[in-house]
Amino acid sequence: MRVILAGQGRIVYHLARQFRQKKMQVVVIVPDEEEAHNLARRIGVAVVLGDATAPRLLEEAGALRADAVLALSPHDEDNLAICQIARQMYQVPRVIALVNDPDNEEIFHRLDVTVAISVTRILSILIEEQAGFEAIGQIISLDEGQVTVSEVVLRHNAPAVGLRLDAVALPEEALIGGIVRQGAVVIPKGPTVLQGEDRVILIATDDCVHEAIAVLAGVVEE
Amino acid sequence: MNPESDGPEALQDVLRLADPTATLVVVGCGRLGAMLASQLSRVGREVVVVDRNQAAFALLDVDFSGFQVVGDATELEVLREAGLERAAYLLVMTEKDTLNLMVAQVGRQVFSVPQVVARVYDPQRESLYRAFDIETISPTSLTAAAFLQRTLVKGGG
């Protein structure tokens, strides 16, 4: 797997390190010289110094053979440009962008960005939902935000705890894609019984995601 | 050829062709954006100027009669406030190519503005704009052409 990371700061450093540990081929594009040296020295990844929105730079970083490009700059316009150049000029199969203004998430999807991740939105969801003491994190948003993948942590007294999956009355357009139980993945089947502290991966359309969360975890208090 | 005196008359001619009631939105109030917005306002056009920096509007004519919107044009809210939903023309001319590219695309795709023109400095990026069907004007290419023309005309004459 060949991945190009474009951006700056801690997020690029930690992602590069993680990808490298997973034996992926990582090339990082950073605008700052000191940061470039630092990345090369400390993680040993290939580094290209410069502005990732300049078409030539992506090519230099190996965009023609890359499996994915991640655009992680603090500017939405730059992340969009990086993704679009990668798609249009170098046919990179997966382009992933950090979206700073959550309103831009949908626009990015419309403009050919494979995955747009809004940290602002993830954090605000976490904070809003945690006010109601359930940990619910939206992991990704698919198909122009119409389908979301969320992680729902079940409290011990959550309504779905103790029920078999086939007895959980989920709405039509929601399904459980997996359960993480004590660090291991449980493949969800009809007879699987939900337990407290299960982390349920929920895939649902926007229309019914709240109802599905309510069925699993109870009504989230405002 | 003096563009200062030549500009407004040429503009008058061009404007006579287009619908006089149509609203224009100019994003980026630098020297170029301010000049254009001022000229359009002078000939009685309805103009909205957007810039993230309030101080930039000082470049406009003192009697500029259009609207001024302060804000980051990558935010949908700001573009909505600028009335992009009703605009017939969108001229994107900030100093930043990637910003121009994004705003131009949002103008087309989200607000369905019929006419969108974006400024692009880096000629390498022009092909990308074209791939997205956005009309561009490149000051770099235009200036290079003008310099070349002058030089050749002088040298060859």
Describe the structure.
The complex is a heterodimer of chains A (222) and B (157). The radius of gyration of chain A is 20 Å and the shape is elongated. Chain A folds into two domains: 2-117, 3-Layer(aba) Sandwich (Rossmann fold); 132-217, Alpha-Beta Plaits. Chain A starts with a strand and ends in a 5-residue tail after the last helix. Chain A has helices at residues 10-21, 33-42, 55-60, 76-90, 104-110, 119-131, 209-217, and strands spanning 2-7, 25-30, 46-49, 68-72, 94-99, 115-118, 136-142, 147-153, 174-181, 184-186, 199-205. In chain A, the strands form two sheets. In chain A, strands 3-2-1-4-5-6 form a six-stranded parallel sheet, sandwiched between helices. With 222 residues, chain A is an alpha/beta fold. By secondary structure, chain B is of the alpha/beta class. The radius of gyration of chain B is 16 Å and the shape is globular. Chain B has helices spanning 3-17, 31-42, 76-81, 97-109, 123-131, 139-156, and strands at residues 23-27, 46-51, 67-70, 89-92, 115-119, 135-137. Chain B has a single domain, classed as Rossmann fold, CATH 3.40.50. Classes of the chains: A alpha/beta (222), B alpha/beta (157). Chains A and B meet through helix 4 and helix 5 of A and helix 4 and helix 5 of B.
Helix content of chain B: 40-55%
CATH homolog superfamily of the largest domain in chain A: NAD(P)-binding Rossmann-like Domain
Structural class estimated from helices and strands of chain B: alpha/beta
Arithmetic mean of pLDDT of chain A = 85
Main sheet strand line-up of chain A: 3-2-1-4-5-6
Quick description:
Chain A has 222 residues and is an alpha/beta fold. Chain A is built from seven helices and eleven strands.
